[in-house]
Amino acid sequence: MSWFEKSAETPLRVPTEALWVVCPSCKAYVEKDAWKQAGKVCPRCNYHARLSCRERIKMLTDADSFEEINAQVTTSDPLNFSDGSGTYAAKAAATKAKTGEFESVVTGTAAIEKIPVVIAVMDFKFLGGSLSSGAGERILLATEVAVKLHRPLIIVSASGGARMHEGIISLMQMAKTSAGIARVKEAGLPYFSILTDPTTGGVSASYAMLGDLNIAEPKALIGFAGRRVIENTIKQKLPDDFQTAEYTRDHGFVDCIVQRRELKGFVAKCLRYAGF
Amino acid sequence: MATKKQVKRTAWDTVQLARNPGRPNVTEYISMMCEDFVELHGDRLFGDDRALIGGFATISGVKVMVMGHRKGRTVEENVESNFGMASPDGYRKAMRLMRIAEKFGLPVVTFIDTPGAYPGADAEARGQAEAIAHNLEFMSTLRTPIVVVVIGEGGSGGALGIAVGDKILMLQNAVYSVISPEGCASILWRDGSKAPVAAEALKITAESLKKLGVIDEIVSEPAQGAHTDPKAAAAAVKKAVLAALKELMRLSADELVAKRYDKFCAMGRYFEVKGK
């Protein structure tokens, strides 16, 4: 590689990078404050960057209304699993230390424009937002709390799928959480699923696709099988828009695509249509 | 029939047996176990998936709705049945047949034998994730007994999509897993050839799954595997299915649904929860 090609590929290092964020999509420099103000949405290309569960809760619920429940439910290691790079227990401990969270989903009670709800928010930073026994248990308990308090349930998904370190137990969380959702619906309560980037695998094939309303953020990756797996199966290259939120809506599996800054108001409006 | 002294096999040996092309498939189990079979076709929405078949059947005088993933015996059959990888149309057909079973008061018997749900572009377009998710939700509330038999490969969400039942039986040399050993090895070990190690770590054999509380009963196979004596294997499955049906058909629909909910909710519950 010659020197000029290299410089064209690597953006110039900006000494003041503490003040700027580079949009991962269009590579535009965005003022850090503006980036945060916009909820990590690029003002130039509308790229919706991933949020942590705490950032999401802050944007979606009324100030100081969120009260976490079942925070003591955390990861466990039913298979005593280790792989080529070490034990699952060590990996989970490191993730907990890094993120300050104890599972890939945080659940609690909150209010959205003064409407009381039960909310569960996944965090992709916690082992890819993977669905584990701890995460499944937290979601199931959230569904039970929704029924008990007679409140709508909102789940914000961000997940690559089941956590394979927990093997079959993680697979069973798909059945368990879906059973919980069924009871929320039987109680006549609304369940809104918000699909954010990415919502794939076992999470899309359970609670994330079961909303009375399925609401997605723009361009979010939504699908069951991974792109590479599909390309290897059908021996064809897939189009760029395959498995985007827009593709999923156009095929009939998502009700609406909503801009992040409008999400809270949109959810509140739909909750009012649901009689809350 | 199985002898007391079973050959000690590694998990990887069991994977090979579960995938043995001579292993009896769902069509053969139905014809060996049932006096009568009336195949019912189609999901009433798109088509008739040949990878997942079902219909009315009679087992020793007991009328049931039977269904299962279909692996072929010949190349032609496998092309037609997509090697047992069902599409959304297959899962929706299964749900339609289960609705009929509920309406007519027939117990449901499902046979699990799939590498996984079909990872194709058309399957994604028609909502593979949604189809599986809805089955999980729907089966958790179905008001008729469901007996599940894992006869070969229990491949992830594609297997679970018809495997939420009251009694989960599993043939001795079948496997059931969140991901294939090859897939797990290539992701976590970054080396597909580590599949035998992954197979061990994932705990996918009937013996391990019984210990984990995911299956209820192991059905013994002929010493060298079901393919060496399909009639004996079918007789053992028939006996176990009839015993399970006898037990479940005594329960009321309310009891069945409540017990099924508790059964799946207990999977991966490792924490005491306050106020429960």
Name some characteristics of this structure.
heterodimer; A: 276 residues; alpha/beta; 2-enoyl-CoA Hydratase, Chain A, domain 1; 2 domains; eight-stranded mixed β-sheet; two-stranded antiparallel sheet; 10 helices; 12 strands; 37% helix; B: 276 residues; 8 strands; 42% helix; 17% strand
Query: Mean of residue pLDDT of chain A?
Result: 94
Mind telling me the CATH superfamily name of the largest domain in chain A?
Answer: 2-enoyl-CoA Hydratase, Chain A, domain 1
Work out the helix count of chain A.
10
CATH architect. name of the largest domain in chain A: Alpha-Beta Complex
Q: How can the largest sheet of chain B be summarized?
A: 8 strands, mixed
Helicity level of chain A? 25-40%
CATH class of chain B: Alpha Beta
Q: Give the SSE order of chain B as H and E letters.
A: HHEEEHHEHHEHEEHHHEHH
Structural class of chain A comes to alpha/beta
- Subunit organisation of the chains: heterodimer
Distance between the termini of chain A: 61 Å
Structural Rg of chain A = 20 Å
Which range does the strand content of chain A fall in? 15-25%
Kindly report the CATH topology of the largest domain in chain A.
Answer: 2-enoyl-CoA Hydratase, Chain A, domain 1
Strand and helix order of chain A: HEEHHEEEHEEHEHEHEEHHEH
Largest interface (C-beta under 8 Å): A-B, 65 and 58 residues
